[in-house]
Amino acid sequence: MGTDVAEREFTGDDRVRFRRQVSRGTEAIARMLADGLFTDQGRPPEPLLGMEVELNLVDEDMNPAMANATVLDAIADPDYQTELGQFNIEINVSPRPFVTDDTISLEQALRTSLNRAEERASRTDNHLVMIGMLPTLTHEHFAHQWISANPRYDLLNRQIFAARGEDIEIDIAGVPLSERHAGERLRTTTDSILPEAACTSLQLHLRVAPEDFAAYWNAAQSIAGVQVALAGNAPFLAGTALWHESRIPVFEQATDTRPLELKNQGVRPRVWFGERWINTIFDLFEENTRYFPALLPVCSDVDPIDEIDAGRIPALDELRLHNGTVYRWNRPVYDVVDDRAHLRVENRVLPAGPTVVDTMANAAFYYGLVRGLVESDRPLWSQMSFNAAAENLQLGARGGMEAQLYWPNVGWVRPDELTLRRLIDVADTGLRAYGVSGKARSRYLSVIEGRAITHQTGSAWQRRAVLAREDAGEDRAQALRGMLRDYVTQMHEGEPVHTWSV
């Protein structure tokens, strides 16, 4: 939810007006689709790669640093912005062509930018960490005082708690660190949504023609479980070993506006995989309008239908703001650039890190795989139930490389075997269709292949490193700090995580 919102109180009239404006915006989307008002209708857009990378901040002792304002002042780069927690910042990578060797150029630019930011942050005795969940975060770091200073974050926090009416409970049963260990469990309550800030992600944007949106969104949904299994990098929170990709359950629980009674009634959660394959982007915006009350009902006086009647492209501010507070793992995005409207799929299931090359490999695998599946002879999503795709996300996040996922015409299969036997080739075909060079395809897909062969993701490495330190006599807090220090060292060295030693 990147829109700046001033501190204020909302009235019942605000909510009624906002609901009406969102509904009018949804009607406007349908009208624009019918009248061909999107710039990419009838032709595929230029392939562009866009991403956002969320980062954590630590001090010299590897503890969370509540210093994002100080660090951003030191970095002094508009590409870097605040995030929800004072221990977070985010870098927005401007969209770049996704052809020939441009992905390698983007990798080099991202590494240069992060190195420069780290050098400047270090002058303040703080450091950047690209990781799915900072392992040294504890319950004390979720206190309300550590929300970032921007008023929109506190306003969002208050609105979620007003809707929920009680403290947020985090309750997650973890995966045992080894066969000789029992599974651990995290049970804690918090009076802020800051556990959401613990979930630092890589967000990938793909601009698509309106008529192709449903196919790309369905494809992205169908591979979510494989994505998190292959890229897990968030195994610890509050001193507890949880899932391989603990961002998934933590985010789901940290922004849940439903008390127990509404859960029992089947009210849909705010963090949502969805409930069906779609036929058009309109389906998703209609669901937003139908199922989710406003969290931030900030209204303008602009009627979007009047804008279309006047020959202008509507900004749809209310629809976009509302959409930004429905946390789909694959989110629809409506945007207007230079008075021309377009649509994007925003993929949100991946964690940040561990390295720049791992990040680029995760991006290439995603972009290539969805393109390859969309252009296959028979859509994958026509061969599997939506519930199977949703279950795969939970299974892949929990078990990582050891998960058993369902795949059409295969049955239950581990993600490493599925990737090596089928998906690498599909992703390569998709990347080739975009025009990505053989050199770039080989560079990034070999990283995915390496993880599948070695079974070493960022999460697997973290778990092994902590287990080794505990076996050597360290307690959990010491092991987490020592592991994180080693992680940061190898992150800066830049070799892909499947080659890291413990």
Quick structural gist:
The protein is an alpha+beta fold. The protein has 17 helices and 15 strands. This is Glutamate--cysteine ligase.
Explain how this protein is built.
With 502 residues, the protein is of the alpha+beta class. The chain has helices at residues 12-35, 68-75, 102-122, 151-164, 213-222, 224-231, 247-254, 260-264, 281-291, 304-309, 317-323, 356-374, 386-399, 415-434, 438-454, 458-471, 476-493, and strands spanning 48-58, 80-82, 88-97, 127-129, 168-173, 185-190, 201-208, 236-237, 240-241, 271-272, 327-328, 330-337, 340-351, 405-407, 411-413. The strands form 5 sheets. Strands 1, 2, 3, 4, 7, 12 and 13 form a 7-stranded antiparallel sheet that branches. Strands 5-6 form a two-stranded antiparallel sheet. A two-stranded antiparallel sheet has the order 8-9. The model has no long low-confidence stretch (mean pLDDT 94).
The average pLDDT is: 94
* Gap between N and C termini: 37 Å
Structure summary, number of beta strands: 15
Unreliable segments of 5+ consecutive residues: none
Q: Radius of gyration in whole Å, from Cα?
A: 22 Å
Strand content: 15-25%
Dominant shape: globular
Percentage of residues in helical conformation: 40-55%
Q: Helix count?
A: 17
Judged by helices, strands and strand pairing, the structural class is alpha+beta
Major beta sheet, specifics? 7 strands, antiparallel
Keywords: Ligase
InterPro entries: GCL_type2/YbdK_subfam, GCS2, Gln_synth/guanido_kin_cat_dom, UCP012666
Protein name: Glutamate--cysteine ligase
GO molecular function: ligase activity, forming carbon-nitrogen bonds
